[in-house]
Amino acid sequence: MSSVPLFWFWHFCGGGLAIEAAGGRITVHDLARAAGVSLATVDRVLNGRPGVRPATVARVEEAIARIGFRRDLTASMLARARDIRLAFILPEGTNQFMARLAEAVETVGAQARGERMVFELDRIRSIDAQALADALDAIDAETHDGAVIVAIDKPAVHAAVARAVGRGLKIVTLVSDLPGSARHAFVGIDNVAAGRTAGGLMGRFCPNGGRVVLVAGSMGLIDHAERVSGFRDIIGSEFPGLEISGPIEGQDAFALTYENALAFFRENPDIAGVYNVGAGNAGLIMALAEAGLAGKVRFVAHELTGPTRAGLGSGVIDVVLDQSPEDEVRAVWAAMRRLVLGPDAAPPETPIEIKVFLRDNLR
Amino acid sequence: MSSVPLFWFWHFCGGGLAIEAAGGRITVHDLARAAGVSLATVDRVLNGRPGVRPATVARVEEAIARIGFRRDLTASMLARARDIRLAFILPEGTNQFMARLAEAVETVGAQARGERMVFELDRIRSIDAQALADALDAIDAETHDGAVIVAIDKPAVHAAVARAVGRGLKIVTLVSDLPGSARHAFVGIDNVAAGRTAGGLMGRFCPNGGRVVLVAGSMGLIDHAERVSGFRDIIGSEFPGLEISGPIEGQDAFALTYENALAFFRENPDIAGVYNVGAGNAGLIMALAEAGLAGKVRFVAHELTGPTRAGLGSGVIDVVLDQSPEDEVRAVWAAMRRLVLGPDAAPPETPIEIKVFLRDNLR
DNA sequence: AATGAAATGAGGTACGTACGCCAAAATCAT
DNA sequence: ATGATTTTGGCGTACGTACCTCATTTCATT
Fold first, then answer.
1. Does the distance separating the beta carbons of B353 and A10 come in below 8 Å?
2. Of B290, B273, B278, whose CA–CA distance to B251 is shortest?
3. Å between A78 CA and nearest CA of chain B
4. What is the DSSP string of A20-43?
5. What is the Cα–Cα distance from B183 to B334, expressed in whole angstroms?
């Protein structure tokens, strides 16, 4: 190996007055020179510190655009004394999906730590707007850069978000949004599209027509309602041979879903398909087995969890639509990077994809 | 609010006699002290430089494990004057998929540049083993860190890969692997699983049985052959009501696919489904239209390109299975990071997913 | 035991940005 | 014009790793 100290090279060919060194990058020094200001002023502008005249800010920004300056994030992260700290506030409880989300926060968090980003996980009482608001208020803007919440659409939460943003925190909503609030970004899937995808599959699965039944946790949950709506759309417009019953509501609970579904199946043994927009899949599978319908009925479910995975394996469930919590947490990570460090910090946001799983493309 | 910073957990349960300072990270200095060697030796071990006795290497590695040292990638990237340089060698030609791949190399490359990784794109004559070998031989290990190739399973390529690895280059195969060679990693989907997924969908789409026809570019292409094989597996074992014809081969070319398919449809107007494992979708769509079968036949295709996207939109194609080139290039990026910078540099590899698209979950 | 090679130590500069401090200059109010 | 205030400049240090040079120690050979 012919060792050529690279920094020598840099000095010789880039050190002069050139704004852009041959092989080198454009640094804050180049920017200062190009804008005709000092390094200190450049720093003030770049980091939004006070004490710079608007005219000067404009000069610097013009120079940024002109010479194509992009701040080096590796150096930037290195120089910041403290890591980026995020608080994830998730509802507690036995909900399978929230458990997956919490797990994703840990696994993705372990990777993020290598890039100087620290995730904290707070669990609060489920569907408790005041608990969420309190948790948000408790976050200190001195020690944290932002918070991630699964939003509940209540005034108390709106107010707490506004206060948090006022303190300088970055707020991202996850899975469930808070439209019209001060939150900076939302990360989650398009649930109407998910319902429509389910409808498209179910329609094709049942070319001979028949009755399809909807199952949900509660139509009071926005994401469930949206999925139902998308499903109805597609079936209504493209598969007129299918009739829709339900939704049967089971509060995403095993026992209740089982009972309500079994009662329905007993009365309608000629059912052609089932679409569960919610979480009570274990109970639903049991009810199907009990009614002697397992495998004879097309079954579309949501969220790749223990029960749905098993259902795919045994052939009871045909398709599972999934929103990957890992992808979502990763998207939060990217969004927070760009919110905290500036627009260069992350790739442009791509919407979270709805993943379609059959037995054969299970990961 | 029970706030549990995740890294505390690490320190408490894994840190042991942790040497590190209260708020700071574990640095190479700590590591040197813990291993009882100098900074220079630590550096030699960490960066695989020669001139360290095996026993000393072991001492340092033991210390790394003991105190939980993880090299700070931000600092590491900052300190290496040079960016990571990769050469992507892709076959030229009108192939839609390769065009998508090339595009992905550019778009993902633009993001990667922000993290000091540079992608170079070389195009070579299609399916020309010698051209590939030559291109590989032409890569200078002084200026490049690695190469990414769509492998062709020929001795000349095996030899060139071995030479490249000998020069210190990291080699990753993309889409098409080179098992048994010296290449460091492979990035691509499981094509047998893709074929099985297609079979599972097609079977459920045709509950009344019937004849399904396979279309391929050439059974000489390994990925096409694997998809056909997976499809046959599933249909044979789970959907005995379906009969399989073909494969019709069209060399992935518009005209040939159109002609061969049209001839087949003319003779078999009662067809129930089509599965095209290859690329000639535009010709196939035209043949279906010509035969008056568009929309009446279940159609599963591969790769989300212009024609397949349009086909989904118009309802001619029911499902498109996709291997996202962007994901693949990103996976290459991660794999190369860890190959060049060490195991901490990238998340553990996840297999590339087979994506399932209907009209309703199109991105 | 002498000799040369290999292994290790000591210490430095560099990467590009963050951030702090204090002085100098420009601007404003009086 | 004077003093008060805001804006800007100059300079230094820090972050953690890479990679260079040169001095010193250890080890195997003869």
1. no
2. B278
3. 6
4. S-SSSPP-HHHHHHHHTS-HHHHH
5. 16
The nearest alpha carbon in chain B to A197 belongs to: B360
Is residue B195 pLDDT above 70, yes or no?
yes
pLDDT in tens, B135-194: 999 998 877 889 999 888 889 999 999 999 888 888 999 988 888 888 988 888 889 999
Please name the amino acid found at residue A203. Answer: G
> Which bases in strand D are touched by protein, i.e. have an atom under 7 Å from a CB?
6-12, 14-21
HEC states along B12-39?
HHHCCCCCCCCCCCCCHHHHHHHHCCCH
Half-sphere exposure of B51 (CA within 13 A, CB side): 7
* Contact yes or no for B1 and A207 at CB 8 A: no
Place of tokens 């790394």: B64
- DSSP 3-state helix, strand, coil percentages of chain A (rounded to 5)? 50, 15, 35
Sheet holding B2-5, edge to edge: A185-187, A170-174, A146-149, A84-91, A117-124, B2-5
The rounded distance, in Å, linking the Cα atoms of B142 and B144 is: 6
Q: Do the Cβ atoms of A10 and A23 come closer than 8 Å?
A: yes
Distance B339 CA to D17 C1' (A): 18
The pLDDT score that the predictor gives to residue A132 is 93
H helices of B182-253, where? 191-205, 222-238
Picking from B59, B36, B77, B114, the residue whose alpha carbon sits closest to that of residue B342 is: B77
CB atoms within 10 A of CB B190: 18
Nucleotides of C under 7 A from a protein CB: 6-21
How big, in percent rounded to 5, are the helix, strand and coil portions of chain B?
Answer: 50, 15, 35
Domains and CATH numbers, chain B: 6-70 (1.10.260.40), 81-188+326-347 (3.40.50.2300), 191-322 (3.40.50.2300)
Non-local CB neighbours of B158 within 8 Å, separated by 6+ positions: B178, B180, B181, B182
Cα of A117 to nearest chain B Cα, Å: 11
Is strand C in 7 Å reach of the CB of A75?
yes
Band of pLDDT at residue B2, cut at 50, 70 and 90: very low
Distance, CA of B88 to chain centre:
13
Work out the burial of residue A33: count CB atoms within 10 Å of its CB; fewer than 13 is exposed, 13-18 middle, 19 or more buried: middle
What pLDDT is recorded for position B74?
Answer: 79
* Between A180 and A116, residue with greater pLDDT: A180
d(CA A256, CA A254): 6
Helix (H, G, I), strand (E, B) or coil at B274: strand
The count of other CB atoms within 10 Å of the CB of residue A198 is 32
pLDDT digits (tens, 9 = 90+) for B292-323: 998 899 999 999 988 999 999 999 999 999 99
Q: Is residue A247 within a helix (H) or strand (E), and if so which, with residue range? A: strand A242-249
Is the CB of B205 less than 8 angstroms away from the CB of A200?
no
Task: Write the residue in B6, B72, B360 that is nearest to A197 by C-beta.
Answer: B360
Instruction: Report, as an integer, the average pLDDT of B277-289.
Output: 92
A50: Cβ under 7 Å from strand D? yes
Cβ neighbourhood burial of A141 (10 Å; 0-12, 13-18, 19+): middle
pLDDT above 90 coverage of chain A, percent? 47
User: Residues B253, B280: contact at Cβ < 8 Å?
Assistant: yes
- Least Cα distance to A270 among A301, A291, A239 occurs for A291
> Residues A40-95: pLDDT tens digits?
999 999 888 888 898 999 999 999 888 888 888 778 878 876 778 899 999 886 67
Distance (Å) from CA B298 to C1' D17? 58
Count Cβ atoms below 10 Å from residue A12 Cβ, excluding itself.
Answer: 10
H or E element at residue A139:
none
